[in-house]
Amino acid sequence: MAKKAAIASIEEKLRSLYDLQLIDSKIDELRANRGELPKEVGNLEDEIAEIQARVDKLSGEIAGLDGDIAKKKLTIKDSEAQIKRFKKQLEEVKNNREFEALTKEVEFQDLEIELAEKRINEYKVKIENKKEILGLADEKLKERSEDLAVKKGELDNIVSANEKKEKALSKLSDDYASKIESRLLEGYRRIRNNSIHGLAVVPVIDGATQGSFFMVPPQRELDIRARKKIIISEHCGRILVDEELANEESEKMTAIFK
What we know:
mainly alpha, Helix Hairpins, 2 domains, 4 strands, disordered N terminus
């Protein structure tokens, strides 16, 4: 008959939770060495994406204006052909009515050419303005891309330097987490996610909770020292352990970290 796994005492559960907290805090410390770099990299990537979108839009608008110029040039070419044809017909007119009609057609095509040339000049001005803005955007894009390369290099160096330690600590965290019952582990993770600096389990030192410094009533402190139940601070929502237990586990985990 298989033996039943021994049920962990409250004290063992508290020690396991505090050990896990020490490991996770060590991981947080390593990640904190990255400082603001991840945020700076993310901001630069967002800015570069916005600038690139602006560059693409301007390039598209310039291409569209070039297309409009090409169309107006075709209009001019067509009008010139029409004028040539009408002028040739003028040489063969037989009455004033035909002469006037052909003359009006020539005038109309002259106006079409004039209007097309006016539009071409307007389009060229717009293109020059957009090219100037595009040049500034390209310059800014290059500048920000260089900044991003530098920041990414710095971040990669830090990540690379701590990668081995972080992987080892993450594995250690998983190992210790696997020994904690799921309900308790869920509670720990929930408190940790909602807590400043990721602290879910803290000791009571000199009558106050570490990190938040809320005073603990003497009777409650005695209960914490007794280690007979898991006590959560009504002020900060963290799991509380006594200073002696915290010191013992800190010493043990410091040796393991080395």
